[in-house]
Amino acid sequence: MWCATGAWCGVVLASLVATATGVSQGVRPSYGFAAGLTVPTGDFHADANGDGFDTGWQGMAFVGFHLPYTAIGVRLDGTYSENSANDKLRSDATAIVGAPTDVKTKLLGASVDLMYEFHSVSPASVYVLSGIGLYNAKVSATSGNVTADTSKTKFTWNWGAGLTYIVGRAAVFVEVRYFDVSSPFGGSDLKYAPIVAGVRFRGR
Question: ∠ at Cα 92 (86, 47), nearest 5°?
């Protein structure tokens, strides 16, 4: 998508080079973790037949770098999420298999994001972020003790915003993002919105 023009990838690569230079000059990284809900949207939530997936959960770990003398940062994060089939999809799968069947989607991947944190004189501040990554999407169907699955790794882009509050050397935050995984199983893209809360620590 964006890489087709080279513009966005060029910005990301330039930022990574700047980050590496900053780190060599003594810039300390931040790191942290978060957890929360994964809300499917579009066909991932429900297609034309009503088949789809319910809200699930997500875990995230990350490391970030703030570019010297700027409000811009770079964050590398990895996430894992699970969503279970809604009642309609579970019912349809059960009818096809001929026995009670559950379906789950699991997403595992990593992304690199550019961040911009708005200046604030208070401990609270707002930031926005956007980036690209690679995510493995796995769909599994389980009936009794038998599980069948299929998976694909695809290009992913995301954007979002968050609110952070500094407490000593740490900060607590809430964040909402929108992900678009490029049609992992053909047809429409897999789209969802993670809503997470977490803690960020500054390196020593």
Answer: 55
Reduce the DSSP state of residue 10 to 3 states and report it.
Answer: helix
In this predicted model, what pLDDT tens digit does every residue of 146-197 receive, in sequence order? Answer: 999 999 999 999 999 999 999 988 999 999 999 999 988 888 899 999 999 9
CB 97 within 8 A of CB 77: no
Angle at 159 between CA 81 and CA 73, to 5 degrees: 105
Q: What does the mean pLDDT of the chain come to?
A: 88
Residues linked to residue 36 through DSSP beta bridges, in sequence order: 58, 196
Domains contained in the chain, CATH given: 2-202 (2.40.160.20)
Cβ atoms < 10 Å from Cβ of 44: 21
